[in-house]
């Protein structure tokens, strides 16, 4: 039995039909660009370098994968920037937020170990084990750890979304975008942000609860109280 061939879509033949098609395509493009426009607007004046970011008590470093249990090169660059900010007395505490959804994968502990090897005292590091995505990390920083103001550290292709989401979550934020080699991961990350912008806009509008919220944790407050 031969299956019928699928029909090819036909373009409108009338000028009015063609005009409506063009208008629909243009409207779709505008809608697709709105989330990215929102991110750039919100984060536009809140991006800094490690050398000129305002002094802030807390820095938030977002997880970016592990290689054989160690921070990936992208994550290591983020942690290097946090260690530099600590040494330069621009921050007091580092909140490392990442994925620990299974026993054999623990981003926060790997991030903590890396920071301690690079001069940040263990008592100045606080771990968030349920930072499963950027929105979750921002909401938990505010609601669980009591962070009202922070420096966010990530790669350039991600930092605007991080700032926009943390601002929406109630954390006054400055973003430090660290340099990254333009390899396959960089291009993948940049392409992914196009689609992630839509989810970010929905998160900011509807403010869903994180996958895991849990009780308030005093880690950041205690670390700040302990002094250097």
Automatic annotation (TrEMBL):
On whether Transmembrane helix is a keyword of this UniProt record, the answer is: yes
Query: Where do the TM regions start and end?
Result: 21-40
What is the protein named?
A: Membrane protein
State the GO CC annotations. Answer: plasma membrane
Q: Where is the DUF218 domain?
A: 58-176
**CDD domains from the xrefs?**
YdcF-like (cd06259)
Which keywords does this chain's UniProt record carry?
Answer: Membrane, Transmembrane, Transmembrane helix
Is Membrane tagged as a keyword? yes
């Amino acid at each position: 039995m031969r299956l019928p061939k699928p029909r090819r879509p036909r373009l409108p033949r009338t000028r009015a039909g063609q005009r409506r098609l063009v208008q629909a395509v243009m409207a779709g493009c505008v809608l697709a660009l709105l989330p990215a426009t929102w991110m750039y607007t919100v984060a536009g004046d809140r991006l800094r370098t490690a050398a000129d970011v305002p002094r802030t008590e807390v820095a938030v470093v977002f997880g970016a994968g592990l290689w054989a249990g160690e921070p990936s090169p992208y994550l290591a660059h983020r942690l290097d920037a946090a260690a530099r900010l600590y040494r330069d007395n621009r921050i007091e505490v580092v909140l490392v937020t990442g994925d620990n959804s299974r026993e054999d994968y623990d981003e926060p502990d790997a991030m903590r170990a890396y920071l301690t090897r690079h001069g940040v005292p263990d008592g100045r590091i606080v771990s968030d084990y349920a930072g499963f995505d950027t929105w979750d990390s921002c909401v938990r920083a505010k609601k669980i750890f009591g962070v009202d103001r922070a420096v966010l550290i990530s790669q350039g292709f991600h930092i605007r979304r991080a700032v926009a989401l943390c601002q929406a979550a109630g954390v006054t934020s400055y973003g430090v975008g660290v340099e990254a080699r333009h390899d396959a991961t960089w291009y993948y990350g940049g392409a992914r942000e196009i689609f992630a912008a839509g989810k970010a806009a929905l998160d900011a509008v509807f403010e869903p609860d994180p996958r895991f919220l849990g009780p308030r944790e005093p880690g950041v407050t205690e670390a700040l109280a302990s002094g250097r």
